[in-house]
Amino acid sequence: SVSFSIIIFLILNFISQIYSLTFSPNAANLHTNQQNQQQNQNYLPPNNVANTQLYSNYLYNLAYNDSDTVPDEQRLMAQLLRNYDPSARPVYNASNTVSVAFGIALTQLSDMDEKNQVLTTNIWLEQEWFDQRLIWNASDFNGLSTLRLPCSKIWLPDIVLYNSADDYTQGYYQSKAMVDSTGHVFWPPPAKFRSSCKIDVTFFPFDDQLCKLKFGSWTYDAAQVNLTKRRDNVDMSNYIKSGEWLIINVIVKRNDVTYPCCPGIYYPDITIYVHIRRRILYYMFNIIFPCIWLSILSLLGFWLPPDSGEKITLGITVLLAFSVFMLLIAESMPATSEMVPLIEIYLTIVMGLTSLSIVLTVYVLQLHHSGPVVTRVPHHFKYTLVHIIAPIIGMHETVAIYANEHNLTLSDDVYKCYSKVKYSTRKRMYKKRLSTPAESDDEQSLRKETRVPVSNGNLRPNSHNIRQATPPILLIRPRSSSRTDYQKHSPKTIQNSNSSSLHHHLFNSNMYLLEKHLKHLIVKQQNEEERNEIINEWKLMALIMDRLLFWLFTFLTLLSSVLSLIIIPCLKNSGYIPALTKELVHEYTTMKNTLSSSPVQNETSADQLVERR
């Protein structure tokens, strides 16, 4: 279709010239211009060099048929693009170098894909150079000194992003180039770049990242196209704030690099270093604070009564919640074994503490329910918990109250501590006792009289203890217990005795049987009291152990939280801990030492965002 249009154009042009020579020249020129303008509206400019040459000739002929009816820009464009080859460098002498000034204007940090290690940015590329073939005299075109030309019609430097994460088929937006009468060309195409960026998630979510954008000519070396910095920093005047990242500094550096394919040949490039820091407010409310609340919930498991049956359930639930947070963080982190994020280390520590608390809770439950099946609490174990650990963790009053309520046999120090308990506490305990069914005076006196003396915590009954615990009236034994009494009360004697002695003998026999049964009941009561005392002692040990584990795990949880969430991030921000990997720190420090760049214009004050490390 293009060739056919060109043939038609040539035929019509030939006919119009013959007509203009034969008939009226003015009418012929007017008619020809109308036809050419109509064809120009429906004409698509070609992309290859040969068709571009024909298109330039077409514009040239169109412009010079009647200069009075053709716009100045159209005539100038026709003149400049005539015999113009976009594939040739814009110099007449092949030994000359084209100097291209390159700069960028950063408009937005669109996205940072940590998992794929890709940084997405919106950038305006600023490229300017001198084209010796695009020079004209502005006075010849009514003072026209600037012109916008299609970028596909002029020579462009083949500058690409070296560390691009996308293919190179998309290219830039085909914006027009601004050309002035001196041959100065300025081409600022907007583009969205997806660049590869080495992600260091060691301090996530308090991490810093250093990303590079390396721009350079893909085919021209330094002798053909010299790439220079348009400015020493990056234009941030049109930057849109990012809700996730904060720009600390942006530095521009020029390099001359040789590659293995072409030894001895230097290829210039412009490398932009973008130092960014993650904003932590989102992660504080969505990850860190929930983890702290879950840690507190795991500590509350030590305050649950063992008889409730929910201690293990609470621990398992908290452990599952931590597992969910671990999965959420792992989905957004790169699958690398080079570093472990700080938040994952913190979650691992807290999960370990939660798992250990579940194991120790099982041990506490075993202590709580071990009374009926085992013997007494070992003396050294009881002494350690009651006399050493309980005062340290502030449970001496609790132990004294518990021992008094359950009639436990402890040392005198415990009961002295009970005497020092506040009056309000003892009054509350007294009211609690009044609310329970009171024992009769006879039951209380019997309990006091049948109380077994304890020596060194030994409550096992023996004949001596039983005899001491027997009421005095029950110690009267009938005289029939001896042989003499038996002979006196033989059947023959009984028959000869009077009625009073018979009643006395029956009374003594009944008392003996009563004493026997009461001794049996006393022994049974003593065994039951001993069993209850053993159970209460083990429960007291479990209570002390629960409180000890609570304070121990509280200390460990606070230590891990403060160390992971406060101390390490503060040390990183103050410079005591490198915020980046060793390779990036070395490259970043070397670059900053060799450059005297000024801080970039940022969205906040320079004192807050520009850090000199």
From TrEMBL:
GO cellular component terms attached to this protein's record: postsynaptic membrane
The keyword Membrane is assigned to this record: yes
Domain Neurotransmitter-gated ion-channel transmembrane stretches: 287-562
Ranges of residues in domain Neurotransmitter-gated ion-channel ligand-binding: 73-280
Transmembrane segments: 6-24, 280-300, 312-330, 342-365, 385-403, 548-568
Domain of life the protein comes from: Eukaryota
Places the protein is found: Synaptic cell membrane
Biased amino acid composition, Polar residues: 453-463
PROSITE patterns: NEUROTR_ION_CHANNEL
Keywords per UniProt: Cell membrane, Disulfide bond, Glycoprotein, Ion channel, Ion transport, Ligand-gated ion channel, Membrane, Receptor, Synapse, Transmembrane, Transmembrane helix, Transport
SUPFAM superfamilies cross-referenced by the UniProt entry: Neurotransmitter-gated ion-channel transmembrane pore, Nicotinic receptor ligand binding domain-like
Bilayer topology: Multi-pass membrane protein
Main localization, broad class: membrane
Family listed: Belongs to the ligand-gated ion channel (TC 1.A.9) family.
Name under which the protein is recorded: Uncharacterized protein
Organism lineage string: Eukaryota, Metazoa, Spiralia, Gnathifera, Rotifera
